[in-house]
Amino acid sequence: MMKPVVDEELCIGCGNCAEICPMVFQLVDEKSKVIDEEACEFADCCEAAAENCPVEAITIEHES
Ligand code: SF4
């Protein structure tokens, strides 16, 4: 299981993640929120979103 986590302290609300992977991330009040954790498992864009976060606020936890 891949579980995306956003560190809201670090997030600057740039919107990259929501643009790259809107089925997983959405911008709410200028902070990224994970709207569908399970979609990360099937969406190729999930890790790309994490890689393209300018402040590295997104981590993908790999759970068994
Ligand atoms: S890419 Fe990073 S900084 Fe930008 S909105 Fe997403 S989590 Fe926040």
Give short descriptive properties of this protein.
64 residues, alpha+beta, Alpha-Beta Plaits, two-stranded antiparallel sheet, 4 strands, binds iron/sulfur cluster
Instruction: Write down the secondary-structure element order.
Output: EHEEHHE
- The termini sit apart by 6 Å
Strand order across the largest sheet: 1-4
Using the coordinates shown, work out and report the CATH topology.
Alpha-Beta Plaits
Outline the secondary-structure elements.
Blueprint (H helix, E strand, L loop, with lengths): L1 E5 L9 H5 L4 E4 L2 E4 L4 H4 L2 H7 L6 E5 L2
Task: Please tell me about this protein's structure.
The structure is a single chain. Helix content is 25%, strand content 28%. The chain contains three helices and four strands, in the order βαββααβ. A hairpin with a 2-residue loop joins β2 and β3. It is globular. It starts with a strand and ends with a strand. The structure holds iron/sulfur cluster. The site of iron/sulfur cluster has 14 residues, from α1.
